[in-house]
From TrEMBL:
It comes from the Eukaryota. This is Uncharacterized protein. InterPro entries: Adaptor_comp_med_subunit, Longin-like_dom_sf. GO terms for biological process: protein transport. The keyword Transferase does not apply. GO terms for cellular component: endomembrane system. Keywords: Membrane, Protein transport, Transport. It is found in: Endomembrane system.
Length: 119
C-alpha cells in the first residue's frame, strides 16, 4: 500500500501484469482477475509477448473495457467477450518457432542417420 493505493502484479511471459485499487480487497481475487485476463489475451492473440501487446493494443484496450466495468469484472469468458469486440487480433509469429523447428529437425536427422542401417 503506497499513498492509499494497493498494487498487485505478476510477471509472466517476460511481462509484468499490474492491477491497482484504492480499496482493501482480497489479493487472491485480484490475482484471479489478472490471470483470467491473461487467458483471454492468449485466447485472442495466441501468444503473449511485448510485440503482440504492441500490435494488438486497440484490441486489448477493448477487452479490458468490456471485462472491467466501473472497476468491477463483468465478462471473463472469451466466448462472451468476442461478440462485443470490434477489432481482430493481429497474429504475431513467434521468433523462436523457426529456430526450434530447425533444432528438432537437425537432431532428428542426427539420430536417424546414426541409427539407419548402411547399405
Amino acid at each position: 500500500n503506497i499513498e492509499g493505493l494497493n498494487y498487485f502484479f505478476t510477471k509472466k511471459f517476460g511481462i509484468y501484469f499490474v492491477a491497482t485499487t484504492k480499496y482493501n480487497v482480497s489479493p487472491s481475487y485480484v490475482m484471479d482477475i489478472i490471470y483470467r485476463m491473461m487467458k483471454v489475451f492468449r485466447d485472442y492473440c495466441g501468444v503473449i509477448n511485448e510485440e503482440t501487446i504492441r500490435k494488438n493494443f486497440v484490441l486489448i484496450y477493448e477487452i479490458i473495457d468490456e471485462v472491467i466495468d466501473y472497476g468491477h469484472p463483468q465478462l471473463m469468458a472469451t466466448e462472451n467477450i468476442r461478440q462485443y469486440t470490434v477489432s481482430d487480433a493481429v497474429v504475431v509469429p513467434v521468433a523462436g518457432d523457426k529456430q526450434i523447428k530447425e533444432k528438432v529437425k537437425s537432431k532428428w536427422n542426427f539420430f536417424t542417420k546414426a541409427s539407419a542401417p548402411s547399405t
